[in-house]
Write a structure and sequence with these properties.
With about 70 residues, this protein is mostly helical. Helices cover about 80% and strands about 0% of the residues.
Length: about 70
């Protein structure tokens, strides 16, 4: 009987851990969707290069400058 009680206790621990993971997963998803994890980084980079600027830089480094300018 003690063995069964121990197994039920472990099952309860596992269920509690899973509930905690579900809560953590929801909190992490909410933070990611709202941009909270990168908020400080984005504030520090305000007015910096745009996505277009970055794409032009990468294209230039790869030797696609003319093709990028023609399509951009």
């Amino acid at each position: 009987m003690a063995r069964i009680d121990a197994l039920f206790a472990k099952t309860a621990e596992g269920e509690a851990a899973r509930a905690g993971l579900d809560t953590f997963r929801r909190a992490l998803l909410k933070a990611a969707v709202t941009g909270e994890p990168t908020e400080d980084w984005r504030e520090a980079r305000k007015g910096g290069e745009t996505g277009h600027d970055l794409l032009a830089l990468v294209a230039a480094e790869l030797g696609f400058r003319k093709a990028f300018r023609a399509s951009g």
